[in-house]
Amino acid sequence: MSLRTIATQPFPDQKPGTSGLRKKVGAFRQPHYLENFVQAIFDSIAAPQGATLVLGGDGRYYNRQAVQIILKMAAANGFGKVMVGRGGILSTPAASCVIRKYKTFGGIILSASHNPGGPDGDFGIKFNSSNGGPATETVTEAIFAKSKTISQYRILDAGDIQIDALGNSMLGEMTVEVIDPVNDYAELMKSLFNFPAIKALLAEGFRIKFDAMHAVNGPYAVEILQRRLGAPADSLMNCVPLEDFGGGHPDPNLTYAHELVEIMYGDNAPDFGAASDGDGDRNMILGKKFFVTPSDSLALLAANATLVPAYSKGLAGVARSMPTSAAVDRVAEALNIPCFETPTGWKFFGNLMDAGKVTLCGEESFGTGSDHVREKDGLWAVLFWLNILAVRRQPVEKIVYEHWEKYGRNVYSRYDYEGLPNDAAQGVMSHLQASFGTLSGASFGKYTIKLCDDFSYTDPVDGSVSSKQGVRIIFSDGSRIIFRLSGTGTEGATLRIYLEAYDADISRHTLDAQVVLAELLKIALDISQLRQRTGREQATVIT
Ligand code: VG1
Ligand code: CO
């Protein structure tokens, strides 16, 4: 077994996006591509000699090969130990949990989350710091800078390491500990929620359906929902993880989780439905023929937090990403706690949680979480809902309607235009930016623009500034239109339009969101010239 130093050349395109580096599998399989990025991580994070690292991924195609490469590189770069999930698997929230529980130096998570997998699908990698959260922008910028000048990487010349049985083995001087990917996470969930109450609810015939979408959360759901909480086996679907997610798009929304949606909108529907994504950090919540928008879900969790043992003493504060609706702001105001507005991406919540400023965080993109880990957490959100349902004993939609009655309704929808030519998408954004002057104060029917700008965020903890985080058009009644380019796609550009209208009138709370938002959508398409500039008439996905 010998340590080898391999000469390499930089790749120009290793800039991490909203959540790590995501590319087609084919890109990652180019000689030296993965190795360069891993060495750039190791060169940037200054881990002390003998440090411990956590390693695992969502199990998608190329996960196993990547794990072997990273183990050999960690051994050659002076790490003392790597804790790897059995089979190379760890859900994103479970990886965060393990990093924190064992106080490791950090971890490497292999995932392209909700993006499709398989040989022609996507792969991804990111580094999480010792707080268990995605590296801050300062660190990801340093990794990118390093990737542009890299000239060599270090790797151990060794055979493949067994990662399928629990226990320790040696790789050169480094210990490889294969850990159970589920147990630490399940124990953490048990410590947060009222498991006996949820168990009782399920025993009384409250019916649930959880769709793991053939992704990483399958075994976690079997252990927690079925084994520990007693849900019948047929409450779970698609719980066998597959390298290509069964050819599906492991994104829990009304479009891609249609199998579950059909059940929840069909005859004899269960009382509660939920799904999670490729790496287990997203969640979708459904009632009988009822969809809870992620922004509303965050607000509801905040408003009902004291029903959950872990949050019974109340919340320090809440945070949401800028495009997420202001529903949670209203709850924060009523609770008299601070509410922070951050750029898109979970990495911006870490500092706030570490400083004890916020307890709950969420994004409109089906992500919710708390300071129990430093990632968003799909099953945690499902358990939070079940805990609320076990205490309140009301149907999902009733809980939502009561919430709107008290706080008003932030009617919300997102339109995604995927696979656009890069320059056309950029053109839309530049056109909007150039129109700020003429748009300010302009009226469109009942809507008058109060403010338009490019969102910029100053981190209240470390003072770092992130600018150009999305175009905001804010109307005098608080309604908003946001335009953003995605930072997770791997093909062309994805442009997202986020629409939000506030409605306090309960007589309109049963209206379909698309009906309420039709006028805002028209304004958005007009002022952005999206159709003319991209030739696209319809959005690819509407959530
Ligand atoms: C999207 C979502 C964002 C989320 C990110 C990672 O980013 O909008 O809210 O944090 O995905 O989620 P973008 O840049 O494509 O809009 V996951 O579950 O893919 O790690
Ligand atoms: Co995800």
Question: Can you give a write-up of this model?
Answer:
The protein is an alpha/beta fold and 543 residues long. The protein has 17 helices and 27 strands. The chain is globular and about 70 Å long. The structure holds alpha-D-glucose-1-phosphate-6-vanadate and cobalt (II) ion (CO). Cobalt (II) ion (CO) is lined by residues 113-114, 277-279, 281-282.
How is the biggest beta sheet arranged?
A: 7 strands, mixed
Sheet-strand content, in percent, reads 25-35%
Taking Cα atoms only, what radius of gyration do you get, to the nearest Å? 23 Å
Molecules bound to protein: alpha-D-glucose-1-phosphate-6-vanadate, cobalt (II) ion
Content-based structural category: alpha/beta
Instruction: Give the overall shape, derived from the CA principal axes.
Output: globular
The CATH homologous superfamily of the largest domain is termed Alpha-D-Glucose-1,6-Bisphosphate, subunit A, domain 3
Overall pLDDT metric: 96
Whole-number count of domains:
3
Q: Distance between the terminal alpha carbons, to the nearest Å?
A: 52 Å
Fraction of helical residues: 25-40%
Q: Give a count of the beta strands, DSSP E runs of length 2 or more.
A: 27
